[in-house]
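Limitations

Structures in this collection are predictions, not experimental determinations, and the ligand pose is part of the prediction. Treat each record accordingly. The example that follows, with magnesium ion as the small molecule, is included so readers can see exactly what is and is not provided: the inputs are given verbatim, and the output is the predicted complex.
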Amino acid sequence: MRANFGKIHKSGKNKSPNFTQKFSTTQSSPEKSEDEVKRKMAPVLQSSQPWVEKYRPKQVKDVAHQEEVVRVLTNTLETANCPHMLFYGPPGTGKTTTALAIAHQLFGPELYKSRVLELNASDDRGINVVRTKIKTFAAVAVGSGQRRGGYPCPPYKIIILDEADSMTEDAQNALRRTMETYSKVTRFFFICNYISRIIEPLASRCAKFRFKPLSEEVMSSRVLHICNEEGLNLDAEALSTLSSISHGDLRRAITYLQGAARLFGSSITSKDLISVSGVIPPEVVEGLFAVCRSGDFDLANKEVNNIIAEGYPASLLLSQLFDVVVETEDISDEQQARICKCLAKVDKCLVDGADEYLQLLDVASNVIRAVCNMPEEFQYDC
Ligand SMILES: Nc1ncnc2c1ncn2[C@@H]1O[C@H](COP(=O)(O)OP(=O)(O)O)[C@@H](O)[C@H]1O
Ligand SMILES: [Mg+2]
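Predicted complex:
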């Protein structure tokens, strides 16, 4: 269910320019033309640039809460000796940020374009691309490693495969040979949410780094930093709401914050954040749970009817109800377990296309039975 919840907002993804742009190095004074473009675009960029990009840490050491990863990678930067890497963990925890930062710190702006190939889920990464583009890039030899402009510039290239778990198994298999054949001149960075979706032969060739969900304090401090920079006013309640609706995903938190700032100006309340995030207002979910706890089926039916009439998505209601149930302290573990079991079943039914109203009614009746300690299944006397 949490996975469902996590899918709602996936904005703020870094869009990489297409392959040809990245692969072809502009030989004739690249910095000059780039600078000119930047200068011309600056005012437009500043107003429309997503904050997720604007506040993306540029250096590995600025990545918060992933101390172990940062420690190992800082060493890597010093020796400029880097293995193939696999970054995995929940969304919005700094994986892409870390990969981009390390590539930038290794090569600097001058060499970055010719040494680093970024491909994410929006680029075609089927088996043909692996056999052609990736292989061609991987095969290119690079000069011996010599520091340039204060950057280590090691003698290899980096291929960043973001959201690698969305690559087909065939494409992943096709990568095995490329990885091995060109490992002297190319390092691969795989980034994914689910490590189990990366085939074992690839995973076993990489140094693996797990990214932890960000704690509430870390989220709050990053959010407050952005509020300071942007001149926003966020009270304590809004801050804690933002942390709880983002579930440790800082990208989501920043996106909600920017959405709320656009719509509601510089003073943002907890309600504003809830309305831009699309989550069901907590009082609706708590209301349904309270009615169920009263044991009155008619009232529960009315509440479910209201929820459906309001158009709240049932699957989202399940995940929010789940949070309410596990946080409720005055019901027993067994009662909580019974409710969670029902939520899981209903979640599956919804995925299979069952009717939302009937499924929510099923949840409501199961919650009533659990909290009133009625038997799990009805017994019919024949
Ligand atoms: N550990 C972190 N430290 C600082 N900022 C972070 C961290 N994790 C995420 N962010 C913020 O969230 C945004 C998205 O992070 P990203 O690295 O793209 O996440 P993902 O793990 O999904 O690749 C970044 O632009 C950055 O502003
Ligand atoms: Mg990412």
